[in-house]
Design a protein that fits this description.
Layout lengths: L6 E14 L34 H16 L5 E4 L2 E3 L5 H6 L1 H7 L4 E2 L2 E2 L6 E3 L6 H9 L8 E8 L6 E8 L5 E13 L5 H6 L2 H12 L13 E12 L9 E8 L5 H13 L1
Antiparallel strand pairs: 1-9, 1-10, 2-3, 4-5, 6-9, 7-8, 10-11
Helix pairs in contact: 1-6
């Protein structure tokens, strides 16, 4: 009988601010229609009324970009017209391990069984205190946000169908964003290779900066930049309370040396 064992050796933390280079729209509940007749309101914290970036939106976008870059087959139907990559064989899991091994997958799907829990968790990202104060003082169309008018144009008659899109204005900063990568090591795995997989998260964030976050990115929305990036880690062992150790920091993601980050993390977890 095969015994599955998983050991949690520690956690790696990526913290950063997310600066909006263009306006951001991440959709919220239709109840926003009551506020100014908006067609597409943004998501807001119901307690503070402040817009935020859901961790699910950020994680889903990062995973989607990795699937596109690696050419991962869309093997799992979520609902009508929506498919995602879920490995169907052990070989497929190994081929696309930077996706399923980091962002998670089903424990069992067709011929593929994975006994390691999802390694990556991404928190919801609030506005920074400074951006919250700045936006509150500005005369924006709605609290913390602007209204952008768009129109679909009939190619024959030139008739327009206008609509209102709510966006968080360019220049706003959300943070701290936090991604937590758990160093789960299962059967047949080594700590150093699991730590190396963390590099896939840095890779995904680099793709995000070239793409967009949220909706309607092809129309100018959602260009973002990571700044004040910090990588830290905490080793875990039974009965021992270890402190979080700072590993490396950089003003922007592009200034982060990915090779150095992985080497420093592997050294820390090998100690």
């Amino acid at each position: 009988m095969t015994t599955h064992a998983v050991t949690l050796h520690g956690r790696i933390f990526l913290r950063a601010e997310i600066k909006l280079l263009t306006g951001l729209h991440i959709g919220g509940a239709a109840g926003g229609l009551e506020i100014g007749g908006l067609d597409k309101p943004v998501i807001r914290n119901p307690r503070t009324n402040q817009p935020y970036i859901p961790g699910s939106s950020l994680k889903g976008k990062l995973r989607s970009l990795m699937e596109k870059v690696y050419g991962a087959p869309q093997t799992f139907r979520v609902n009508d017209g929506v498919y995602v990559h879920v490995p169907t064989t052990q070989d497929e899991y190994r081929r696309f391990r930077p996706i399923a091994g980091v962002f998670g997958t089903l424990p069992s799907h067709k011929e593929c069984t994975v006994s390691v829990p999802t390694r990556l968790a991404i928190r919801d990202v609030p506005l920074t205190k400074e951006s919250e104060q700045e936006l509150r003082q500005l005369r924006t169309d709605l609290p913390y946000t602007e209204v952008k008018w768009e129109a679909a144009i009939d190619r024959v008659t030139s008739a327009a169908a206008p609509r209102q899109i709510e966006r968080v204005p360019a220049g706003a900063v959300f943070g701290p964003a936090e991604a937590v990568y758990s160093v789960y090591v299962g059967n047949g795995e080594q700590v150093n290779e699991v730590v190396e997989l963390f590099g896939a998260l840095l890779e995904a964030f680099a793709y995000l900066e070239d793409d967009y976050l949220g909706g309607m990115g092809s129309r100018g929305n959602g260009q973002v930049q990571l700044q004040q990036v910090q990588i830290a880690a905490r080793r875990l062992s039974p009965g021992v309370s270890n402190e979080v150790q700072q590993v490396v920091a950089a003003p922007t993601l592009r200034e982060l040396d990915r090779t150095r980050v992985i080497a420093e993390l592997q050294r820390l977890f090998a100690a």
